[in-house]
Amino acid sequence: MKQLTIILTLLLFANVNAQTDQDVLKTIYTQSLTNGKSYQWLDHLSNKIGGRLSGSENAEKAVQYTKSELEKLGLDKVWLQPVMVPKWVRGDKEVAHFITNSSTVDVNICALGGSIATPKNGLTAKVIEVQNFEELSVLGEEKIKGKIVFYNRPMQADLIQTFMAYGGCVNQRYAGAMEAIKYGAVGVIVRSMNLRQDDLPHTGSMSYGDLPNNQHIPSAAISTNDADKLSEALKKDSNLKFYFKQNCQQFDDVLSYNVIGEITGTEFPNQYMIVGGHLDSWDLGDGSHDDGAGVVQSMDVLRLLKESGIKPKHSIRVVLFMNEENGLRGGKKYSEEAKANKETHVFALESDAGGFTPRGFSFDCSDANFEKVLSWKPLFKPYLIHYFEKGGSGADVGPLKTTSNVLAGLRPDSQRYFDHHHAANDTFDAVNKRELELGAATMTSLIYLFDKYGVDNIPEVKEFKN
Ligand SMILES: [Zn+2]
């Protein structure tokens, strides 16, 4: 039996070597769509574990679960990389309302990650609505002091690349409190980063910058429907009072881990190509799209390489990063260790844009490497993968950037991503099995091609070989 397995394996490898790239991609896609593991892993992460905020018990469970699943794949190495992460806890469900013309309107609200609590009995104040920081400076302390600043700039609907629309808004959430504090605001509420009208508040990280603790003010997000209601009500009654209560808390940093698995390369074991997503998530939903999908797809890349009989020349690692959402500690730690260990990372691919139908990739690389990518476009055509553009890669792999390596990000269709992003409806039922599996196959195919044809202009590697 053992002999038969060896013979079959040898035949499979011989077969792969004789296969065209077209054949190999076909094998990879077939494997993912008929024998994929990504959806099953996501089911466990989402439904058996749930939201995985850094420093939480669930985040720890996710570390242990993914490590044990990677260990079952027969990789050459699986290990945990320790990293200290922030621990912020939401506490009780937040409540909010505003009172206008003696009627009370309830508001769907959630604390922003990193925010302080309101006073124990909540915070009540008048509201000043703005679209941006410039308006704040025009209004000045006289109009803002003692009030809650309400940032209500919507995501721009006519941008087809919804991440651009997000990028155009997110400073309200991240830096809104920092800016409002300058003018004596007592709290911040921000319109959720959501292109859809609904009742779900979307959380996300915020920062007080270097401001001392005694200047911090509570910050929260309200749903798009409620943002519109509040804005309308303010037009009629600019003196209306807004009330919200939250008891979130920041604790000391705690120990957590990046989870790493490796297939050691046959020709260039000291040159690394990595694929990853982030294991942590926000706590309102179960983090299925952000970024459970990227985690399970990345895990399946290594499994699909093996199942497809591909023996990579470079060492291929899956890296499940901890704490992308509110600190990026995992991404920073991984690159620090890579530098300290003089590991040459020639290629890094991240999936952190949801588990939707893959469209292609964006690349952060030299023109020569990008030309090489473009030459592979016809191979992807049968799978309706057409988007190959220069642009960003991903937050976690970003710190690995050198002048010569290639960073890439999977780019799924993004039209529905922000309906779910950081909200209570980022759940398993929102992920489609085939779409998820197509993403895993698309990522595996790109890794296969970069491994086979290499990355151009890698001076560090030449140094390494001497
Ligand atoms: Zn994410």
Mean pLDDT: 95
Radius of gyration from CA coordinates: 24 Å
How many E-type strands? 16
Unreliable stretches (pLDDT < 50, length at least 5) are: 460-466
Question: How would the blueprint of this fold be written?
Answer:
Layout: H1 2-18, H2 21-35, H3 38-49, H4 57-71, E1 77-89, E2 95-100, E3 103-106, E4 109-111, E5 123-130, H5 133-144, E6 148-151, H6 162-167, H7 170-181, E7 187-191, E8 219-222, H8 224-236, E9 241-245, E10 249-263, E11 268-278, H9 288-307, E12 314-321, H10 329-340, E13 344-350, E14 358-364, H11 367-375, H12 377-380, E15 387-390, E16 406-412, H13 417-420, H14 433-453, H15 459-465
Parallel strand pairs: 5-6, 6-7, 7-8, 11-12, 11-13, 13-16, 14-15
Antiparallel strand pairs: 1-10, 2-3, 2-9, 4-8, 5-9, 10-12, 14-16
Helix pairs in contact: 2-14, 3-9, 9-14
The structure holds zinc ion.
